[in-house]
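Hello,

I think I submitted the magnesium ion job twice by accident. Can you confirm which output corresponds to this input? Input:
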Amino acid sequence: MKVEKEQALQQIHQQRFGKAGAIFAAPARVNLIGEHTDYTGGFVMPMAIDFHTVAVVSAREDGRAVFYSGNYDEEVSVKIDSLGQSPSGGWNDYPTGVLWSLRKEGVDVGGFNLSLAGDVPLGSGLSSSASVEVATAMALLGHAKAELPLEKVATLCRRAENDYVGAKSGIMDQFAVAGCVANRAMLLDCRSLEYELLPLPDQVRVVICNSMVKHAVATGEYGDRSSEVEAGQAVLQRERPGVKLLRDATLQDLEACRDLMSSASFKRCRHIITENARVVKARAALLQGDLERFGALLVEAHASFRDDFAASCEEVDVLVAIAMQQEECFGARITGGGFGGCSVNVVREEAAEQFVATVRREYAAKTGIEADCFVCTPADGAFALARKGGVA
Ligand code: ADP
Ligand code: MG
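Support: Only one job matched these inputs. Its output is below.
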């Protein structure tokens, strides 16, 4: 997304609402490793990618919040003062939820028009939801002439998704979309919200391959998985005094509680405990520039997600299998909540285009589906974009 996309939305906003507005943007994200570890206080390693939701905001005098999405070509209006926790089930729950959450935070938001448009693929595991939430939060904070720190913005956007939209999710997406910076991956401790920005070696590209199989976080099995995890975590908390969050548990702790939980909970927890360890090892591998090791950890993470977490899908397994036959690929795995979506692949830079051509050809031959593939470098999050004054 370049400056033209911001200008295009500005024009739409001006035609629709009769005046220009202030422009904000938030990227999408891809998670390199650390899947379903965030909501039990573990480690994740996302990076922001070069897809964006743009938000244009202008004031209005009637105390209403008017949301327009270019993606849906639809306008929704609510009265700000009487806004309760009343989701409608539509796309506008995401921005309306952010308004609701900002007000809970004590931010006084006056009447506004908010236009949104994004090129983030929706429902593909690249977190268009966090992108739209964070873009909305930045725009409404700008409109209210208020500032909040990164942790607060991420947390209030997560609350919008969890409590207003009603979708279970951890803090990773909102934190990464808000706080990442260009050319760096982010290692985030989801308990303390401490983070570290890690260099990705120049000789690799991150390639995202979209299986085109869609998931639905709000209604789907994502919720079942997190419930199974939470049930297992509750047993560990009860039985093992040192365990406050699943993040504190070892495989020995889990083994000791095996008979006290369902076999599904046992396996889901085993994925998360081993996954946290893999993220820590992946950090070390990146710092040492050891791409073979980094890639091998991605492959292990995929197997764990598929077998223990039982949240992969046949099509993404095919994408990963094709990738791992390519010599120029260090590692590949499913990324995002699961049950469809995208694979993430770490590929030698000079071979990235060839890699994409091969994956697309073989995936189409095996499944009949045309995959969308993107060669990415780590992009700026919403805070860095706001500091620099735009997406361009
Ligand atoms: P993901 O985050 O993986 O893309 P989700 O199901 O969590 O998938 O979120 C997708 C939802 O976010 C869409 O169905 C829509 O409701 C909302 N959304 C995302 N981007 C936009 C946008 N530009 N305009 C309006 N709604 C959006
Ligand atoms: Mg989402």
